[in-house]
Specification:
Layout: H1 10-29, H2 31-34, E1 47-48, E2 55-56, H3 59-70, H4 74-80, H5 85-100, H6 114-120, H7 127-134, H8 161-172, H9 195-198, E3 221-222, E4 225-226, H10 252-265, H11 269-277, H12 279-290, H13 293-296, E5 300-304, H14 310-317, E6 322-327, H15 330-342, H16 349-352, E7 362-366, H17 372-375, E8 383-388, H18 401-411, E9 412-419, E10 422-430, H19 437-441, H20 449-459, E11 464-466, E12 478-484, E13 495-501, H21 512-516, E14 519-533, E15 543-546, E16 558-570, E17 591-600, E18 607-616, E19 622-632
Parallel strand pairs: 3-15, 5-6, 5-8, 6-7, 8-9
Antiparallel strand pairs: 1-2, 3-4, 10-12, 10-14, 11-16, 13-17, 14-15, 14-16, 17-18, 18-19
Length: 633
């Protein structure tokens, strides 16, 4: 196969050469001032390329060279992964370490020589999975001595001057730290913390339960299927308790920067294609909007975070009299406007008087919904239906729910509809099959289980978003929290709740005696959610959008949290050794008690998760494990 490197264009070469000439002129004018610091002649060496021996006089020209010659677009990767200073610092050190071993930083392929690596380099893909390999503290230690790039790549960032010096001091402290790649976790104060101490605990909503769809006589649509026919990573970042701040104390500048990065990331068409191509997601909204005519006919609809405008187009198609599509990304607002015009839904006031049927109903407003009153004339409480696809990984990641609740309080009529109007989080325990252990136990006939064990240990420090097979669940599924978007308060987005997981009974064909005479191992928990378009508003056709392991997969997948050590579970009495620790093979637990807190993180649009775990033995004795803390950002 030939080289995948993109050739530099003549125009780009000229631009780089012009930059060189300009920089050389500037250096000559400053030479009289710089001579005293030179060492045996010549200025300091420039910025060394991440992949080859080329040197450049500025970060901009270096990164342009990397993009054109080595298929590495630093700014694009930084934007897509929303990397802060530390994340970018780690990425640069990781790439240098991989190139030093002639290894591809994306796919991990090891080449025979650096030239072979140059020929192999390709466009980045699966960046979120790749991030798990380099988002580690050891990459905060500079791989290359006196690497000028590490101290200069952020110079073009706006309003960073006040923070760079402090950030660099923190990073350089890692020069004197021995890093063990996470094999020895923090064992002091954090191990003795409770969820109350380490999480930002808000008022706890009483669980309203979850409808038993098997016993319900009402026909509902679950992931596009009749419910009667089909029922269904990041490093752990521990911060000093006193240094944690609430959202109310975040500076306006920090929030603005996070919002710009967040909404900017949604300017990528790839993200929108992934969401629209998620048939479960898009069909659920389409059915709820198009197949409930009593709700949509003649309604004023507001779509929060419209993206391409697909939900707004459904609303216009369903007979809404007016559709207000709100989009914070400037680029996507322009795209949604173009699409509305191309499909004859654009609200063009001079021409709308003669329009009939579906024409002239949709307008796109660029900005955040919290600032909508500044962007257009709209009366408070004048909207009949709010629609939004606000859900993120683990339901609450990205914190879009707060924007929906703001719009509800500000613009929705009393008794108006919200789509979806409920959201329910579920939890279940997973076994060996949900880990990488089975894969590494037999790799082309070779036992590589030592790798699998290390992967599982590392996974205990980060939430992982991945698809879990329902056959790998070893406990029953229980409701973790239920949200009623029509009535909930803003502070109920943060919650703490306790649940108990019991061993899964299995199917009706299983031998109950065999089930009760064996134990199984629970390696952690799986979180997922259902979004409900209930009969409260969708009277003709209620719909459930489920991200459950028991239903067709979605782009949300599930969120996996791994225990520090697996817990043995058993259904019945196995002659347990009363002197043995609960949760071991000698004394399997009868159930697992969990206390989980999920709250909006100190970093805007992130969430913090804390979990306390205890195994309950056959005689009621308990064994508790230290609390685990995670950040999803």
């Amino acid at each position: 196969m030939g080289s995948n490197n993109k050739p530099e264009t003549e125009e780009t070469r000229k631009r780089i050469e012009e930059n060189h000439e300009e920089e050389e002129e500037e250096e000559e004018t400053e030479q009289d001032w710089g001579d005293w610091s030179e060492d045996d002649g010549g200025l300091e060496s420039g910025f060394l390329c991440l992949f080859c021996d080329a040197e450049y006089s500025s970060c901009d020209t270096l990164f342009e060279h990397c993009r054109l010659s080595h298929c590495f677009d630093f700014h694009s990767v930084k934007t897509e992964l929303r990397l802060d200073f530390y994340g970018s610092f780690k990425l640069i050190n990781y790439i240098r370490s991989q190139v030093a071993e002639n290894r591809c930083w994306i796919c991990g392929l090891t080449c025979q020589s650096n030239q072979d690596l140059q020929n192999h380099l390709h466009e980045a893909y699966n960046l979120k999975e790749t991030k798990l390999r380099w988002d580690k503290e050891k990459y905060l230690k500079p791989f290359m001595q006196d690497d000028k790039l590490l101290y200069s790549f952020g110079e073009d960032e706006v309003d960073e001057e006040d923070n760079d010096a402090e950030l660099m001091r923190d990073v350089m402290n890692f020069e004197n730290i021995s890093v063990d790649d996470g094999s020895s976790k923090d064992k002091s104060a954090t191990n003795n913390c409770t969820a109350d101490e380490i999480g930002k605990v808000a008022a706890v909503s009483t669980l309203n339960g979850h409808p038993n769809m098997e016993n319900s006589s009402e026909k509902m649509i679950v992931n596009g299927l009749d419910s009667r026919e089909h029922i269904g990573a990041f490093d752990s970042k521990l911060e000093d308790k006193d240094s944690r701040v609430s959202l109310l104390k975040l500076s306006a500048k920090d929030i603005k920067k996070v919002n710009e990065s967040y909404f900017g990331s949604y300017s990528s068409f790839g993200i929108h294609r992934e969401m629209i191509s998620d048939k479960v997601r898009t069909d659920s909204y389409r059915q709820a909007i198009l197949e409930n005519p009593s709700l949509m006919k003649g309604a004023v609809v507001m779509d929060i975070g419209c993206g391409t405008g697909i939900l707004s187009l459904f609303a216009a198609q369903a007979g809404a009299s007016r559709v207000i599509a709100v989009e914070a990304s400037e680029k996507m607002a322009a795209v949604a406007t173009h699409i509305a015009k191309d499909n004859d839904f654009w609200w063009d006031r001079p021409q709308s008087e003669g329009n009939i049927n579906n024409a002239g109903k949709m307008e796109v407003v660029q900005g955040m919904v919290e600032e909508l009153g500044e962007s257009m004339q709209i009366q408070p409480h004048s909207v009949d239906v709010l629609v939004s696809e606000w859900m993120g990984y683990c339901l609450l990641y990205e914190s879009m729910l707060s924007s929906v609740l703001f719009a509800r309080d500000q613009w929705l009529k009393p008794g108006g509809a919200i789509l979806p109007d409920t959201a329910t989080m579920f939890v279940a325990g997973f076994g060996r099959g949900g880990t990488s252990l089975p894969f590494w136990e037999n790799v082309y006939g070779f036992n590589m289980s030592c790798v699998g064990r290390e992967v599982v240990r590392d996974a205990a420090g980060i939430p992982i978003v991945d698809v879990v097979d329902d056959h790998d669940l070893v406990t029953d599924s229980v409701v973790l929290q239920t949200f009623d978007l029509a009535t909930m308060k803003h502070d109920e987005v943060d919650f703490t709740t306790s649940v108990e997981l019991e061993p899964k009974l299995g199917d009706s064909t299983s031998n109950s005696t065999e089930l009760r005479s064996t134990s199984t191992w629970c390696y952690g928990i799986v979180l997922w959610f259902d979004a409900g378009f209930t009969s409260r508003f969708c009277k003709e056709k209620p719909v459930v959008l489920s991200t459950s392991p028991y239903t067709p997969k979605t782009h949300w997948s599930q969120t996996i949290i791994t225990f520090r050590e697996p817990i043995a579970l058993a259904l019945g009495n196995l002659g347990a050794d009363g002197s043995a620790a609960v949760g071991t093979d000698a004394c399997p637990a009868r159930r697992i008690h969990l206390r989980v807190s999920i709250a909006r993180g100190a970093v805007h649009r992130s969430i913090d998760i804390s979990m306390e775990t205890a195994g309950v033995g056959p005689d009621g004795q308990k064994r508790s494990w230290p609390a685990q803390i995670f950040n999803l950002s």
